[in-house]
Design goal:
This protein is an alpha/beta fold and 462 residues long. It has helices spanning 43-54, 74-82, 95-111, 128-149, 167-175, 194-200, 223-237, 254-257, 325-362, 390-398, 429-448; strands spanning 15-17, 30-32, 121-125, 158-162, 179-183, 205-211, 243-246, 270-276, 288-292, 304-306, 313-315, 366-368, 376-381, 406-408, 417-422. Bound molecules: pyridoxal-5'-phosphate.
């Protein structure tokens, strides 16, 4: 999302025509577009104006760019509508909503194998980005404490991660003054290996981020291998580096589809994990989760205790007020679907993604990036001489309503451009077939067009 700017000059005086649709008596009047109108208007009329403008947004269900849920069951939507007015922070006033958050944290601690003898601790967030800020801050504060205890300086913290990290980690580093140590991708190695992670660490490393479900290609980074390499680093040098797992997508996929893969609190070096409830947690936008393996992993001086809402309440969050409806919806999903329901939904999405990737490969000119472990696949145009590139395809597909981002891979491999498709709950195999048919049609059309001017390629923000 770009920053909004103040509109100046003539454009600032543009207006919106009232009653755009209805033949109602009286003059058609106008209201300002960028200033607050002087007078109130009829709610139905205001509704219609806003509703009509929003028709210009893309159809969320055809948005194959987003990882975020675009469909929920009507019962979940009803519960959300019933709880739109609840502020998550008012835990004393809405103790039952707070209880549902607590139940979700407990359920996730089990799902992510918190050992019985440890007391995992965690909270909901607005999404994985806020969770990343909190996870990163806890790593930084713990490192500062260790450094101070050892009489060492605390002015040059760094965080080790792959160049394929989502932008939230670069934000964390910039906002909270930590050096990002990005381990580059190479043409045939896109993941953070244990050896590369350990080699990038030193005594100023606050942690290593390992990604379960890389945004670019859906792959799982080898968390156990990274943990083993960091164990070895500690044995050799005494440097003890914790792991934070960014399970934005994989945190709600791996436990159901690859339950034997140890990436979570089964690995003692994993100190914290985040996931997006609004991605494969299957909730509408606005909820993430972060858990620490024990209260010791979350330094106490980051937790604020406030009593002005009634009761003594510990909070660790960037925002204060936040909607409660998403937490209610997350609890609904966990309760309603159970492990079996989640497994079936994630498997169905995975099957659709695999079938689509195969069908797209079978068209000829495309190559799918290997290694995706979540219902996501990215594909490139194999032949540089093809009469189109992924940016052309993305633009033309939009004409049919499909929103599929085209983007380049991280630095060092940024000569490779791909299209990425994210399959989510509610996207049927049938829609998948329609997409492939449209892709084929668009390819044929582009192939017959004379060399055309390729418009400016908008950057895609992961
Ligand atoms: C790996 C990864 N981490 C973090 C994020 C940020 O998540 P959110 O949109 O929930 O803030 C994303 C979003 O795509 C992601 O893919």
């Amino acid at each position: 999302m770009t920053l909004s700017r103040k509109v100046r000059g003539d454009a600032a005086h543009r207006s919106i025509s009232r009653r755009p649709l209805y033949a109602m008596p009286g003059e058609t009047t106008e209201v300002p577009r960028y200033r607050i109108p002087e007078h109130a208007m009829d709610p139905d009329e205001a509704y219609q104006i806003v509703h009509d403008e929003l028709m210009l947004d893309g159809n969320a269900r055809l948005n194959l760019a987003t990882f975020v849920s675009t469909w929920m069951e009507p019962q979940a939507a009803r519960l959300m509508a019933e709880t739109f007015d609840k502020n998550m922070i008012d835990k004393d006033e809405y103790p039952q909503t707070a209880e549902l958050e607590l139940r979700c944290v407990n359920m996730l601690s089990q799902l992510w194998h918190s050992p019985d003898h440890e007391e995992a601790t965690g909270c909901s967030t607005t999404g994985s980005s806020e969770a990343a800020m909190l996870g990163g801050l806890a790593l930084k504060r713990r490192w500062q404490q260790r450094q101070r205890a050892a009489g060492r300086p605390t002015d040059r913290p760094n965080l080790v991660m792959s160049a394929g990290v989502q932008v939230c980690w670069e934000k964390f580093c910039r906002y909270f003054e930590v050096e990002p140590r990005l381990v580059p991708w190479t043409p045939d190695h896109h993941q953070l290996s244990g050896a590369a992670a350990a080699a990038a660490c030193d005594e100023n490393t606050i942690g290593v981020v390992a990604i379960m479900g890389v945004t670019y290609d859906g792959a799982y980074e080898p968390v156990a291998e990274i943990a083993a390499a960091l164990d070895d680093l500690q044995a050799r040098t005494g440097i003890d580096v914790p792991i934070h797992v960014d399970g934005a997508s994989g945190g709600f996929v791996a436990p159901f589809l690859t339950p034997d893969l140890a990436w979570d609190f089964r690995l003692p070096r994993v100190q914290s994990i985040n996931a997006s409830g609004h991605k494969y947690g299957l909730v509408y936008p606005g909820v993430g989760w972060i858990l620490w393996r024990s209260p010791e992993a979350l330094p106490d001086d980051l937790v604020f205790r406030v009593n002005y809402l009634g009761g003594e309440m510990p909070t660790f969050a960037l925002n204060f007020s936040r909607p409660g409806a998403q937490i209610v919806a997350q609890y609904y999903n966990l309760l309603r679907l159970g492990r079996e329901g989640y497994r079936r939904i994630q498997q169905a999405s995975m099957d659709t993604a695999r079938r689509m990737a195969q069908a797209i490969e079978a068209l000829g000119p495309f190559q799918t990036l290997p290694g995706s472990a979540i219902p996501v696949f990215a594909f490139r145009v194999r032949d540089a001489a093809a009469p189109y590139d992924v940016f052309d395809l993305s633009r033309e597909l939009r004409g049919r309503g499909w929103q599929v981002p085209a983007y380049t891979l991280p630095p060092d491999v940024s000569d490779v451009a791909v299209l990425r498709v994210v399959i989510r709950n509610g996207f049927s195999a049938d829609l998948g077939e329609l997409f492939v048919a449209d892709l084929e049609r668009v390819m044929a059309e582009l192939a017959t067009q004379p060399a055309h001017h390729r418009p400016h390629r908008a950057a895609f923000h992961h």
